[in-house]
Amino acid sequence: MNENYTLALLVQYNGSSFYGFQKQLSTRTIQGALENALSKFANSDVNIITCGRTDTGVHATHQVVSFTTSAKRPLYAWIRGVNALLPKDIAIRDAVFVDVEFNARFSAVSRTYHYYLLVDPIRSAIMQDRVGWYYHPLDIELMNDAGKYLVGVQDFSSFRASDCQANSPIRDLSHFAIATRGNLIRFEFTANAFLYHMVRNMVGGLLYVGNGKISVAEFTNLIKSCKRTLAPPTFMPDGLYLVDVKYKVPLFEHDVSAWLV
Question: Of 55, 94, 238, 244, which one is the catalytic site residue?
Answer without folding.
Answer: 55
